[in-house]
Design a protein that fits this description.
Length: 226
């Protein structure tokens, strides 16, 4: 049975999770701007609690974004360092998918419109539907103004659950779901679940292929000329 380690730092939350011998453990903290200081200690504490050596890990999963530029880069830097040292494959998982999987785990939602506040008056957006326990993308992910988001295939919005900080713009969105949680953030426990499906499909890649997905072309706003 495989041992998987999962890390996510794409939003205000910093979380790690471990699957070992069929048992999942996770740590989760909402600590804006402290991810770089806390991530490796959280990994160490998690492994210590599980009684598992880092060398026993078969693959490392990470939230690839979209999310905060710095946060996504922190996770990728740590994952690449560990994967290169251990010579282990990595698994990249969308943070919008992680949000959707969390909504399924906590709310039983089977259709989730995941939205993360992208700043600059936009949201990262993706719609997911449950397929055999796994949230799968319906359509494509995008970065959009709140006024332009929509669930796929003109489905009734009431059939969907809204998850994530992007739903803070709900008053500007053209469709409103029957229920939503605008405080929901990605959690490594749900990343671990999705990584398990990806691992079973043989989707692990080499460490140098651990790449971010920002959705936005310009991840930083250039300074104006004086």
């Amino acid at each position: 049975m495989s041992t998987l380690l999962a890390l996510d730092t794409s939003t205000e939350a910093c979380s790690v999770a471990l699957l070992h011998e069929g048992r999942a453990l996770s740590y989760y903290e909402v600590i804006p701007r402290l991810h770089a200081q806390r991530l490796l200690p959280m990994v160490r504490d998690l492994l210590d609690e599980a009684g598992v050596a880092l060398s026993a890990v078969d693959a490392i999963a990470f939230g690839r974004g979209p999310g905060a530029f710095t946060g996504v880069r922190i996770a990728i830097g740590v994952v690449q360092g560990l994967a290169f040292a251990l010579q282990r494959p990595v698994l990249a998982v969308s943070d919008l998918a992680i949000l959707a999987q969390r909504a399924y785990r906590e709310q039983g939602a089977e259709r989730v419109a995941a939205a993360i506040d992208a700043r600059m008056d936009e949201v990262y957006w993706g719609c997911y539907q449950l397929q055999q326990g796994e949230m799968r993308l319906a359509g494509s992910e995008a970065v959009l103004p709140p006024e332009r988001v929509a669930v796929p295939w003109d489905a009734a919005a009431a059939d969907w659950f809204g998850a994530g900080t992007g739903w803070g713009y709900v008053e500007r969105m053209p469709q409103r779901p029957a229920a939503l949680d605008a405080s929901l953030l990605p959690h490594a426990e749900d990343l671990l679940s999705l990584a398990g499906f990806a691992w079973a499909r043989g989707e692990g890649v080499e460490a140098e292929q651990a790449l971010p997905v920002y959705l936005r072309d310009n991840v930083a706003t250039p300074k104006k000329a004086p």
